[in-house]
Amino acid sequence: MDRREIAGLLAYVGRLDPRTMRTTTEELKDQIAQWHELLDDVPLATDHGWDVRAAAKAHVLDSPYPILPVDIARKWRAYRRDRLDRHTDPTPAADPDNPTAWRAELLGTRHAVATGQQQPTGQRALAGGPHPDVEARLRAIGTCIPQAVRAELARYRPTRAAREAAITEGRPDPLSVRCEWCHAPEGEPCRSRRTGPDGAARGNARRATPHPTRVDLAGAALTRQETAA
Predict the structure, then answer these.
(1) Gap between the terminal Cα atoms of the chain
(2) Which end of the chain is more exposed for a tag (fewer CB within 10 A), N or C?
(3) Beta-strand relationship, 191-195 and 201-206
(4) Which secondary-structure segment (H or E) carries 201?
(5) What is the C-alpha separation between 21 and 15, in angstroms, rounded?
(6) Phi and psi at residue 201, in whole multiples of 5°?
(7) In percent, how much of the chain has pLDDT > 70?
(8) Are 211 and 182 in contact (CB under 8 A)?
(9) What φ, ψ does residue 126 adopt, rounded to 5°?
(10) pTM of the model
(11) CB count, 10 Å around CB of 44?
(12) What whole-number distance in Å separates Cα of residue 75 and Cα of residue 50?
């Protein structure tokens, strides 16, 4: 703000809080000089949420103390920090092989966001489908995990490997249904539940193979699906 805008701001604040008003011309000049020293880089208003008069009014409403220029300066700094915290740097249009131009565009965008000249750029989200090259590769492979990689992973996730093998060979997938014996939910392996003499559970370890009744239930479910198809 220039001195003329500072004078207008002080007149506005004086109407809200008469304690800030000065009675002589010399006192008013000193006050304007003091406020200008601290607020010369603070704009009167921006297109995106900043208005120095609103900041002054909020202070008068919230604080019992007369407003000082540093109160406005702190609100402006908080406004800048908030905008930069919500900003994600977009990729500059400058040539990345020209680091000077790249950096200048990056800093220019940040300055425009911080000073309210443009809105922050939010975190970019993934949108749309895969790239056409990726789609072609998925059609060729049939899965996003190549078979060689899947074979290497099988020893680290035997349950998943067993399910995939069953589906590939056309056999029923036992984990596709709930186990009526140990009550393991769909997708979870069966449990070896042991009970002590008092009837309390003594064990709940995962089984490497599903219970036979679960295999029968999965087979019946697969048969019903094939019949319906």
Answers:
(1) 76
(2) C
(3) antiparallel
(4) strand 201-206
(5) 8
(6) -70, 135
(7) 91
(8) yes
(9) -70, 130
(10) 0.53
(11) 15
(12) 10
Contact 120, 153 (CB under 8 A): no
Neighbour tally for 137: CB within 10 Å: 13
Q: What phi-psi label fits residue 8: left (phi over 0), alpha (psi between -120 and 50 degrees) or beta? A: alpha
Residue-wise pLDDT tens digits, 123-169: 765 556 666 777 777 777 667 777 788 788 888 888 788 887 887 78
Dihedral of CA 42/44/49/55: which sign? positive
H or E element at residue 192: strand 191-195
Tokens of 126: 């993934």
Buried b (16+ CB within 10 A) or exposed e, 89-122: eeebeeeeeeeeebeebeeebeeebbbbebebee
89 touches 106 (CB < 8 A):
yes
Give the span between the Cα atoms of 137 and 52, in whole angstroms: 57
Count, residues in the chain? 229
Number of H helices, E strands in the chain: 9, 2
- Taking the C-alpha atoms of residue 7 and residue 221, their distance in angstroms, rounded to an integer, is 82
- Mean pLDDT across 92-115: 92
pLDDT tens, residue by residue, 173-208? 888 899 998 888 998 888 887 766 776 666 678 888
- Here the tokens at position 199 are 């009837």
The answer to whether 217 and 190 have CB atoms below 8 angstroms apart is no
Place of tokens 């998943």: 160
What's the CA dihedral at 36, 40, 44, 49 to 10 degrees? -130
